[in-house]
Structures are given as structure tokens and as C-alpha cells.
Amino acid sequence: MHIRALCNTNVVTVSQSEELMTAAALMRDRHVGYLVVAESMPGGAVKPIGVLTDRDIVVGILAMSVDPKSLRVGDVMTQRLVMVEASKSLEDALRMMRRDGVRRVPVIGHSGELVGVLSLDDIVEYLAKQLAEVSGSIQAELKNESTLRPASAGGGAP
User: Fold this and answer.
1) Which domain CATH number covers 51?
2) Mean pLDDT of the chain
3) Per-residue pLDDT tens for 142-156?
4) Residue 153: inside a domain, yes or no?
5) I need a labelling partner for 27 at 20 to 30 A (CA). Which of 4, 21, 51, 140 fits?
């Protein structure tokens, strides 16, 4: 399965020149803790250049007693960006996320354009559905077996 089919395409983006307080309000209003910092590409697409997390704000700014009103997104964002290509497999994405210790990654197309965001939550949801299908197959097999070969009245072998 390609990542494109699993990722969330409803991505909240922000510019690196945006005020940090505005980005924090955007996180609150959109109920997200992860913003993709992006810049425009020709044709209307956007290219990820960083990410900003609620943790970046709390641990990197508030815990250090820095005035967040004096900062822009670009001052705080994570610039060492881990991204995965939309055509990669789930296994490739998991390997990369584990290697780099991230829970979410921007998903990009072949030209580097933002396609979506893949999170561990998305992956767990997908795997849970797959396990439910496996469980359903097992239950159907047991039902078929009991229909085809009902238990004997004596309860055992002679």
C-alpha cells in the first residue's frame, strides 16, 4: 500500500513569516498540534520547509521563558524536516519514522509538493481495520465449520 492512500490530505499549513502567537491560535482553532511550514510553488502547490508542533512552542519557548509575542514561526520551527514520498510503502514510512523518532511526517509528491501528513495514528487506525478483517475471516471460518460439521450428540469419539 502506498502512503498516498493512508495520509491525511487535510493539512494545516503556515508561513515561516507568520507570528508565533497566530500559529498557536491556528493550532487551537483547528484542533491540531502539528503545522506544516510551507512556501508557495509555481502552480499553486506548496512545498514543506519545516514543521511547528505544540511541543516546539511549549518546550522550546514557554519553558525557556522567552516571550512568544516577539517570535515568528521561522524562529521556532523544526527545520530538519523528515518527509516521505507519497509513492513509498507503509513499511518504508514506518522505517523512516522509527529511524528519525517522529510521530508525523509530511507526505510529498514527485515534485516536492505537499500531498498530506502521515501520522502514527493514521497507521494504527489502518492496521486496526486490517486486524478486524482478519478477525472477521476467523469468525466466518468457525461459523462455516460448525455449519458444515455440527457437533455430534454424544460429544466425543466412540
Assistant:
1) 3.10.580.10
2) 91
3) 777 778 787 775 555
4) no
5) 4
| Distance of alpha carbon 20 from alpha carbon 49, whole angstroms | 16
φ, ψ dihedrals at 105, nearest 5°: -140, 140
Sheet holding 46-53, edge to edge: 13-14, 34-40, 46-53
Report yes or no: 89 and 6 within 8 Å, Cβ to Cβ: no
Only one residue has cell 502512503, namely 3
Return d(Cα 68, Cα 23) in angstroms, integer: 11
CA distance linking residue 76 with residue 156, whole number of Å: 71
Number of domains in the chain: 1
Whether 156 maps to a domain, the answer reads: no
Q: What does the alpha-carbon distance between residue 86 and residue 28 come to, in Å, rounded to a whole number?
A: 28
Q: Which residues, 6 or more positions from 8, have their beta carbon under 8 angstroms from its beta carbon?
A: 116, 117, 118, 119, 122
pTM of whole model > 0.85?
Answer: no
Residue written as cell 493539512?
11
| Beta carbons within 10 angstroms of residue 110's beta carbon | 9
Gap between the Cα atoms of 60 and 145, Å rounded: 59
Over the stretch 74-123, which tens digit does the pLDDT of each residue have? 999 999 999 999 999 999 999 999 999 999 999 999 999 999 999 999 99
Other beta carbons within 10 Å of 25: 11
